[in-house]
Amino acid sequence: MIRTERIDVAVIGGGPAGMAAASASRQAGAARVVLIERDPRLGGILNQCIHDGFGTKVFKEALTGPEFAGIYARKLKESGVETWLESTVIGFSPDRVLTICSRKGITRLETGAVVLAMGCRERSRGAIGISGTRPAGIYTAGAVQAYMNLRNIAVGRRFVILGSGDVGLIMARRLSLEGAEVVCVAEILPYPSGLARNVVQCLEDFGIPLYLNTTVVEIHGNSRVTGVTLAEVEPGGKMKRGSRRRVVCDTLMLSVGLIPENELSARAGVKLSPVTRGPVVDDSFQTSIPGVFACGNVLQVHDLVDYATLEAEKAGQSAARYSQAQVLPAANIPVEAGAGIRYVLPALVSGQEAVDFTMRVTAPSRERAIVFTDGTKEIRRLQQQVLAPAAMARVRLNRGRFDGAKKLVVEVAD
Ligand SMILES: Cc1cc2nc3c(=O)[nH]c(=O)nc-3n(C[C@H](O)[C@H](O)[C@H](O)COP(=O)(O)OP(=O)(O)OC[C@H]3O[C@@H](n4cnc5c(N)ncnc54)[C@H](O)[C@@H]3O)c2cc1C
Predict the structure, then answer these.
(1) What are phi and psi for residue 385, nearest 5 degrees?
(2) 55 Cβ inside 6 Å of ligand 1
(3) β-strand partners of 252
(4) Binning pLDDT at 50, 70 and 90, where does residue 404 land?
(5) What is the pLDDT of residue 124?
(6) What is the pTM of this model?
(7) Rounded distance, CA 263 to CA 269, Å?
(8) For the domain 1-122+258-328, what is the CATH superfamily, name and number?
(9) Strand, coil or helix: what is 254?
């Protein structure tokens, strides 16, 4: 039998973003808030991140992932949010009715508002298409991290890492500390895709070489990986002649990007950005479906969890307001990514409140500025010493800055 319940706000996902959104929703007056998490415990990806570096912006200290998650789990409990663990949302409709599968069976949850906080997943071998055999010994960095940090299992002894994303860099250090050998990190781009601090602390401090403009073109081995062939890549994507070289390893670890987990959102008809692969949102974090909000890694891949939780609090407050039939400011000023900006969020603003814009640039540069215009007139200029695609830039525009603007354009300029 299908059980039906009616609540004010449902939050899908019990990672840091979901926990922050749910607590903020309750604090903003939503009477019955339910957080739904498919795992047996709260915390999301942070449970396996036992390194420190979390909370430097919000708490001004470097916490481990579980410590950071613990703070939000306590807040959640104190705020009176109901937590449904081992419960998976398998669908939701544009009128905000969720279908949830758990040991109790199927629940139909009618909601006043929904917050999407499902996080993201890793890109796998299939997504990047490397030729060669299909032996054991090919893992994503997150999978190696989960085996090592949650189950105490080492999946290999001699690693080649493809991709210089933050998860791979963190794992290069972790594997070295546990006695494995990390032969090298190969990155197809001309610059690292992880944060500069992780390149220094996780590779340089451990003497692990980072080969830029380099990729894995072939995997060797039958039952188990025995090696990979690396090759240099020229601008334009062609392999450099004579640059192929075989490297012996028993494990290939992939750290080639994260994809926001939006299958549910897409099925419900939420408009997704082809660039971020997350929902298109306004400055209340409302998606194209009224009353459905998004935050955290499901919205955009964050570099720092602090920013994921800050935006989640805003999304949770907006959801509470919507569920109480309060009118959210109409967002009708479009925001465009101009020269040098890969994407900017939110995509629409009301101009009635201050907005924290988040964005990523297309290429690294030094001593340049992030500039906001209304298409012709400059509204705000923020000088930057270093801009890098790996680091999310964040710029606040106060209310008065939007006066009369019909659109906003953000670009990198001299
Ligand atoms: C390896 C690694 C290292 C990192 N290191 C740092 C660092 O040093 N410092 C830092 O600040 N940040 C770091 N980050 C980034 C930070 O962890 C993320 O920004 C943050 O975890 C995103 O939170 P989230 O809640 O959006 O997603 P997640 O933590 O991924 O949580 C999403 C949750 O949603 C649940 N879920 C998904 N779909 C459903 C469904 N249909 N039904 C029910 N539940 C569902 C999942 O089970 C999961 O628990 C790191 C990330 C990784 C992966």
Answers:
(1) -70, -45
(2) no
(3) 138, 160
(4) confident
(5) 82
(6) 0.95
(7) 10
(8) FAD/NAD(P)-binding domain (3.50.50.60)
(9) strand
